[in-house]
Amino acid sequence: MKTTFVQKTILCFFLVCSFHLLAQNKSGRALVLIDKDWSFSFGHQYDTKKDFGHAEGYFSYLTKTGFGDGPAASGFDDRAWRKMDLPHDWAVEQPFSETASFSHGFKSAGKNFPEKSIGWYRKKINIPNEDLGKIISLKFDGVFRNSKVFFNGFYLGTEESGYNGFEYDVSAYVNYGGENTIVVRVDASMEEGWFYEGAGIYRHVYLQKTNPIHIIQNGTYVTSELVGNDAAVTADVKIKNNGKFKGSIEVVQTILNNKNKQVAISSENVLAPEFYQTINYSSKLRVENPLLWDIDSPNLYQLITEIKKDGEVIDSYKTSFGIRTIEFNPEKGFFLNGKHVKLKGTNNHQDHAGIGTALPDEIQYYRIAKLKEMGSNAYRCSHHPPTPELLDACDKLGMLVIDETRLMGINEYHLNDLQRMMERDRNHPSIFCWSVGNEEWQIEGGITGERITNIMQDFSKSIDRTRPVTVGISSGFKSGISSVVEIMGYNYLGNGDIDAHRNQFKQQPGMGTEEGSTFATRGIYFTDDAKHYQSAYDKKPRPTFYSIEEGWKFYAERPYLAGMFIWTGFDYRGEPTPYGWPSVTSYFGMMDVCGFPKDNVFYLKSWWRKEPVLHVLPHWNWSGMEGKEIDVWAYSNCDEVELFLNKKSLGKKKMEQNSHLEWKVKYTPGTLKAVGYKNGKKVLSDVQKTIGRAENIKLSLDKENVLKGNVSVLTVETTDKNGLHIPTANDEIMFAIKGGKILGVGNGDPTSQESDQFIDNIALVAISNFMEQKATTASLPQELSNYSEKEWTEAFKDRDYKKQASSYIYKGEFDLKNNSASNVVSFFYKKIGVETVVFVNGNKVEPSKDDSQKYVLNSAILKEGKNTIHIAATPLQKVKDWDVMNTDPGIIQVITPAEPWKRKLFNGYAQIIIQKDENAKEVVLSASGKGLKNGVIVVK
Asked: What is the predicted pLDDT for the residue at 883?
């Protein structure tokens, strides 16, 4: 298989990252990914009983230090919870509901669903004794949203936004040489955006260990200036001392090229900062004949900053950066490294088919590679800070980025978020512009917007002086923000007179931060409002807005405009304009939610890329429409295109710049062929054929996948007896996998309400009406006796722990909605006695071999509805009078096995995302469907 530049770049990146983590450990700094082996369960938004009794204690976690209760307590029993790995988006797992949020894709989570708006995560980690004296911290790249974090029962803090990275120092709370408990409570009941946002810990989590004297997180800032044939590099670093060392330290800064060869070095002795203080250090380095970062050759360098004490490296911090120049010219547009570049951009949200917002790193690269293939060279992070891995992908693959904060304002909430984003991201060479806002209709046109923009703009310059600032504006281009913003961001031609604004503000560069908002459904060529399908032909979305072609022509013909960003590159969940329920995804994308191209991709590819392109549409399978006219379009950058139907020419037409060609063709089954000519010579052709019935399932590995990655994207389709793709197929396909697991499935149908994921359902059933009777002997019964109903009293009520009975018989009830033989029902006993015997519906049950306090219950002894549990136990004794004794007998866990993985094709395609098991050499995926020959693929 041919290895592309993109694939080689991605492979090198993953290898370098792995090597770097090993190298970091040698310096005393360690960054350990802790995504694996978490426990999860839903809580409740307002019912504290359903929220596991959290914050019910006399002392809350805000009252006394270390008083985290419920799941926040270290000793909480989470054995019945779901076991999982991160990243995780619980919203994508939920069914659709008409009562759910329109803007968030009608998933039954978040507001209006209190039982699915709170999620609890717990994880146990061991930290060795030798780490005592280090600074131990937890790093979260993003949790949606309003997260509260606890460590060993100690409350660490709250992060409201779902888009900020954050960290907590836990050094003082660590149980060195033993087990430690991380707990995160996530409240996704409130929305931050008007688009699908997911729910949960959907980005990476790390355990970080450093020397007390260390470079702070995001503590380096690398800038460069070209001087003749060399680059003058300034490397700023912030060093903090969380210890009591006083004296001199050595700061060594080394620049490595993309071959890991040293090209510059600087060293200086400085005084260590005082206790819990930070110092700023700056060095000047020179790189001779640097390889510049650009979109075609994204060359990167590494700055290695080392802190030495007595000649020993005590901290090492790696910063990836690029050397390049950027310039916005109000007359000529945008320049990268002195060369004019027209911005060919897309806006994108962060979700993907099947997996929601919980994207594995490989999918970030996959999506950027898909956009590059279309000819795009720029990406706007709409409308919040992205995950760090997205920016890494843009750095490695050569994609310019507008990095955007979530909300405009001038107070700490707003400016602190902006500062954190900029300090985290400012070393990424892909970022060429900061965006401090988008479509703030309340303030866009007035003095308030002007004041806020001036403050945010100046504040941005105090953090990064090398990049300009923009705001996306949509409510007229006359006054307010548009009069003071550094780079004017025009959101849609239909919202104002761009030429008039430019004539008024001739020294203000501008670009189209949003354009298009067109509606299209992949593979649909006749709009059907009843089915909520929009034709894929490029057209105006509404009378005052413009088609993709009209928008691109406008920006392409005006040199003073730097370029435009289409709304959007990919479809996304939510905002199913122009429809509502039962549509659940947007219609705006050049590609659908899977990344399957709509026809507009080929229009853009024709004029955004240099190599010859030819695409003819629609498909040629129109049974029942014989003799009726079909609109046939050709997208191409050829000089001329000739169309043939069943070898008969229907005419040759000249292609105008940034346009397309059209024919009216009466449908006849057969072969529709377009031939493209350059300088009078045939250079390429494209064919649409009338296809036979589907006979085979075909599975293929997408070429944009990461080489040797653990996660892969596969395309599912059907073919006829000749192996030709069926563009109208909607067969349901079933999947089975060995050597890995399926992460998600999708098909790009904006109205599909099929499950994205098929996972076992875990229900936790409380034991109610818990009663007790005293027994006269410590000998526990092996068969259940008939106990007098009059003798039952509320369990543990007014218990005198100094005068306890020899043993007790407890009785409780639990309800089962059904008693399917396929369900796995277990009782997770929480110790209320020294010796214990358990009976369910009168039958003695035995503990499992792997856990003496877990009882797996046979369906033969269970029944639908009310079930009775008896526990015979000798009592626990208090050691101290103030000991708090457990009175909770435990919980019933019901696991309902998931259905087999499946998905219908939509207009010929479906997508499946798989992950290789940790030690597997290969993954075998098989697919089956009614009346179809099975498909099998082996992924190494």
From this structure: 84
